Amino acid sequence: MDYFIELFFSGLTRGSIYALIALGYTMVYGIIGLINFAHGEIYMIGAFTALAAATILSFFSLPLPALLFLSLAAAVIWASAYGYTIEKLAYRPLRHAPRLSPLISAIGMSIFLQNYVLLAQTPDFLPFPALIPEFAFLAPYAGVIGSSDLVILLTTAVIMALLSLFIKFTRTGKAMRATAQDRTMAMLVGISVNRVISATFVVGSALAAVGGLLIASHIGQINCFIGFIAGIKAFTAAVLGGIGSIPGAVLGGFILGLTESFATGYVSSDYEDVFAFSLLVLILIFRPAGLLGKAAPEKV
Amino acid sequence: MARRTMRLNGRDIGSALLTALWFAFLALPFLAVKINPVEQTVTWRWHAIIYVALAAFLLSLGGSLYRQYRKAHLARKSQNDLSSEQSLFGRLWATRKIRLSLLAALTAAAITFPLLFSTYQTNIMITALIYVMLGLGLNIVVGVAGLLDLGYVAFYAVGAYSYALLNLHFGIGFWSALPISALLAAFFGVILGFPVLRLRGDYLAIVTLGFGEIIRLILENWNAFSKGPSGIANIPRPGFFGLDLTLEGAIIYLYYLMLGLVLFTVFVVNRLQNSRIGRAWFALREDEIACQAMGIDKTRTKLTAFALGATWAGMAGVIFAAKTTFVNPASFTFLESAIILCIVVLGGMGSIIGVVLAALLLILLPEYLRPLADYRMLAFGAVLVAMMVFRPQGLVSRVRRTYVPAGKNIPDE
Question: Does residue B338 fall inside a structural domain?
Fold first, then answer.
């Protein structure tokens, strides 16, 4: 039973991270109908920036919470800046191009960023400092849930709540929903569509950066290839929940995390990634609209 | 029209300065800082930031100039209404004499290549030719039929592994393995094709990517079947009518074999493009719904595209296995698919000459510019983005064959 609960919590932790990254995919897809292939790389860039910031800041012997928040701020700022720049360079000129063009451009961007970090830093795994403090009150449950699990779960929950409020009530959030519904109409009622799309990329990238820092601190190591697999899995989560739907991304993230956790725990850990990919293929074949998404008929 | 001189005003320079600052900021945590978390040390590399800023500044200025040029060019074009939009290459190619002599020179160069250069060079050339073949195969799927396949390397792996395994277990030789592997790969193409028939472009891309990764992961983990990450060694090279060839001879033989296969591929793909099925592929690429409305069987058209594309990958896989005499899953990663995609995109989707040129360029350049080889993947990524943004039609855009009824002049629109 303990093993089951342990797997359950590790699944939830994984799921939270997938959900955080999946939100970026789903928001971008909802607005411009593009699979932002480079999104996984943004997550990696967030994790690397956090590592650089934490290493530099550790010279000043700051307390751990301050270190965590400053690194988080750096990760969010730089990841958002990269997200914004990528959109501007690689996707905006292709707004009216055939569907495949921005997708190929996104794949190119992803390869470029991966190798950029590889060449600028190192292809090896780097140890990541544990930025999340160990809580004393969790010590009796150490075998079941760690303090980083708890922090990740809580952070994800808070971020989801904030994001829902943001989308629902703020001016930018409303503009995002309007643009997602109908870009031309949104333009006609005076929404600056380009600015809204940029804002979407910035928000999505910030979420991915938070996910990157949390998971890196939880696992304890990063390298420049972590973005690829994490990106594909988060995309799976987004599709599972119904791409374009924000609650769907969260649900999909948790389902994928739990599936993976139980499958590796009870079946075999060699095929960890195969489970995720098979799940993706199966959903796309049997329910392409996802769990919470609506199937859109193709218009001529 | 008087040629306007292009000049940069203050605004251009200002925006270039801003761009430079922005990119310097972006590069800060990656290029300026080199972290070593083990020893808790940081190396500062400020010069890298200055280079980045300088490059961004110059590129931004170049961009402004380019935009001015484009504007002037477009204005001129609409004035003169230039009808001949052919490139220099296209015009040269259209001249029969030049075309023939060019072809003759190419043939001579291709035939004498292994005699003039060392085995090492020949080996590199074989690799390049394998990529030409892969590029032409993927071109059927992506370029002609418009189905973005990111898992193409899976079929390449199927080909290579089926030869390796058939040889290991049943002692089947190269020549029998070639058609068997091609068929197997085609079979896998259909297996993949069936479930994804209903999917739209971008979903299709992701599913094929997942499929490619699944194949690689299975090869990596199913030790009893594929010997896992250590791979299969001692795969025989193709035999030459039962003669034992020296290593050098075998490589030269493989080179001519590959040359023949590439020519065969070019021939088949070229004939296919103007066939009934080829034109159905183009129609499918342009508009799926309209294509269905015209009575084209979508299912069959898509499946044949997948199967035929996979066939070439399977054959290329066999040759790859025979060339390296060793296969392991590390040769079949997603990056390989990305390189092949890059070849198709750079060459111009659907253009045969373009794909051949792009494959030779992308594979040979990094080989001969060894110091720059580390930057290969970086450049590939940048090429994909730049091609999409600046020249989506590729290096050599495909000239659509138009059918003009004899004796009639078709008026302009």
Answer: yes
| CATH number of the domain residue B253 falls in | 1.10.3470
Looking at the structure of chain B, the number of domains it has is 2
Among residues B345, B108, A89, the alpha carbon closest in space to that of B362 is found at B345
Domain ranges, residue B144: 91-390
pLDDT tens digits for B236-282? 777 766 666 677 778 888 888 888 889 999 889 888 888 888 888 88
Which residues of chain B lie closer than 8 angstroms to A86, CB-CB?
none
Q: Compute the C-alpha angle A96/A102/A104, nearest 5°.
A: 145
Q: Which helix (H) or strand (E) holds A99?
A: none
**Nearest in space to A34 (alpha carbons), one of A104, A136, A81:** A104
Nearest CA in chain A to B385: A105
DSSP letter at B184 equals H
With beta carbons under 8 A apart, name residues in chain A contacting B150.
Answer: 107
* Closest by Cβ to B217, choosing from A58, A239, A274: A274
CB-based contact B388 A97, cutoff 8 Å:
yes
Tokens of A219: 């696992």
Q: How far apart are CA A223 and CA A44, in angstroms?
A: 8
Yes or no, beta carbons of A108 and B37 under 8 Å apart: no
Say whether B39 sits in a helix, a strand or coil. Answer: coil
| pLDDT, tens only, A29-38 | 888 888 888 9
Span B227-234, mean pLDDT?
80
CB B1 within 8 A of CB B76: yes
CA dihedral A282, A285, A286, A289 (to 10 degrees): 110
- Interface pTM (ipTM) of the complex? 0.85
Residue that terminates a domain, selected from B52, B77, B102: B77
Tell whether B85 is covered by a domain: no
> Rg of chain A over CA atoms, in angstroms?
19
Backbone angles phi, psi at A34, to 5 degrees: -120, 135
Domain positions in chain A: 2-286
Fold for A2-286, please state it. ABC transporter involved in vitamin B12 uptake, BtuC (1.10.3470)
Q: Do A52 and B35 touch (CB under 8 A)?
A: yes
Q: How far is A294 from chain B (nearest CA, A)?
A: 15
Number of H helices, E strands in chain B: 16, 2
Q: For B143, which residue in chain A has the nearest alpha carbon?
A: A100
Strand partners, B325: none
